[in-house]
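Proteins fold. Shown next:

***
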Amino acid sequence: MDHQDALPYRQKLDEEIRSAAARLLAEDIGDGDITARLIPADARARARVITREACVLCGLAWVEALFAQLDPGVTLSWSAADGDRLEAGQAFLELEGSARSLLTGERAALNLLQTLSATATRTRHCVDLIAGTGVRLLDTRKTLPGMRLAQKYAVTCGGGHNHRIGLWDAFLIKENHIAACGGIAAAIGEARQIAPKAPVEVEVETFDELEQALAAGADIIMLDNFSLEEMREAVRRTAGRATLEASGNVDEGTLRAIAETGVDCISSGALTKDVKAVDLSMRIVAQGS
């Protein structure tokens, strides 16, 4: 399955993949890989990449783009796809080509894979925790700097869903917006004038604000730091008139209980901002000339 195909930002993602590969190569190589020059220019090698821990794989297109720019003569053979679960010790990529090129591209490629796979792995774990509830797990804009689209994509590989991509594709009206606009109804009314087709979401902290958002016709209402009992009451009061999103105090220990309140979705910044890189390793398995 190509997880990218169904994404509304597919073209932007393709552009980002190419530019990210170029940036990472420039960052790592600079004026040239002096250590790789220890190896004869005509030496060839075959290498294998394995994971040292169970994970969900993500980042194939980035690695393909990186080696295509570094050395088109390097061939990559994948035995797994984005979104696949891998077991500890499993080999999932074999590379063959110039020994210099394999070693020069190694760290940049692994950096990409270990970060995106970490995001996908964290997401899959959390999605599994709420399995069977019908609740969608959403990411946020709390992404690693410069990796917004990449991590958003990784979330989909882990079974999660993307919230808004940035500040341009949906309204998220928060406390300060409401105050500056003169109230919830005024903010929603202005949003409908500015971008009639864009989804309008309002963050609420009380039942009074919830009722105001419902009366003004909000598409999505974010329940900010509501207790479990308050979430259940919000679901009862809303009765399907708007999508309800739970936010705040979301972690692995609370996810299931929140999902069982009846909300439609749960957003969590931890999917992207608190990830721990997956432990990956590349080893030369054959050399020649």
Notes: Residues 99-129 form the longest helix (31 residues). The mean pLDDT is 95. The chain is about 40% helix and 20% strand.
